[in-house]
Amino acid sequence: MEENNNTTTRKYQREISRYDTDRAWYAINTYSGHEDKVAEAIKQKAESADMADYIFDVLVPKEKQIEVKNGARKVVDRKIFQGYVLVDMILTDESWYVVRNTQGVSGFVGIDGKPTPLANAEIAKIKKRMGVEDPKYTISYEVGEIVTVIDGPFKGFDGSISEIDSEKGRLHMLVSMFGREMPIELDALQVKKID
Fold first, then answer.
1. How do residues 32-58 score in pLDDT, each as one tens digit?
2. Is the dihedral of CA 25, 77, 136, 144 positive or negative?
């Protein structure tokens, strides 16, 4: 009789907590382009529904990149994972309901309908990537493209891009000079597309 009672108790406990009750990060699917709105809405719902003890943080993973466009350099925030928001929470039926029924949320990432927590190592990598001090350059040119040099000693020359160094924002080019191709290296701001 004692053994049967213990089995019933364990079964009952599993039914009560069908989710892992530890605090963890979960990935949420959202409509692409609505990540910031969804994150803000989840934060507001957590406060208004008195869920601050269950929903701790909402994160839209972004990294800084330098975009070179029309000769101007601009630092922009780019989303690392389009269509995803990360939520630090203790998963209960109530917290699941608050997050899942937020406008713009299409579901939790998981297996067989059960939300799967992200590994701490994954979160550490994402946070490290978000805190990168040296932003990467986004250069709107392609290898093989013909461009005109607009600044420096090679001003007025046309050349084809042979390599792009997005970490330094530099272009390796081949410029026709004295009847032969000469390799040069320039900053991405020193060239423009040929109209």
1. 889 999 999 999 988 888 888 889 889
2. positive
- Whether the predicted pLDDT of 20 surpasses 80: no
CA distance 85 to 66: 23
Asked, for residue 179, whether it belongs to a domain, the answer is: yes
Cβ–Cβ < 8 Å for 182, 151: no
> What confidence tens digit (pLDDT) does each residue in 54-74 have?
898 899 998 888 887 777 788
Structure-model confidence comparison of residues 107 and 195, the more confident one: 107
| Mean of pLDDT values over 97-104 | 90
Residues 115 and 161 in one domain: no
Q: Are residues 154 and 83 in the same domain?
A: no
- The first and second tokens of residue 172, run together, are 């390796």
Residue with tokens 């601050």: 52
CA–CA dist 157, 161 (Å, integer): 13
The three-class DSSP label of residue 45 is helix
> Which residues fall within 8 angstroms of residue 72, CB to CB, at 6 or more apart?
189
Query: E strands, the chain, where?
Result: 23-30, 55-59, 62-69, 72-79, 84-90, 105-108, 110-111, 114-115, 136-139, 146-149, 158-165, 170-177, 180-187, 191-193
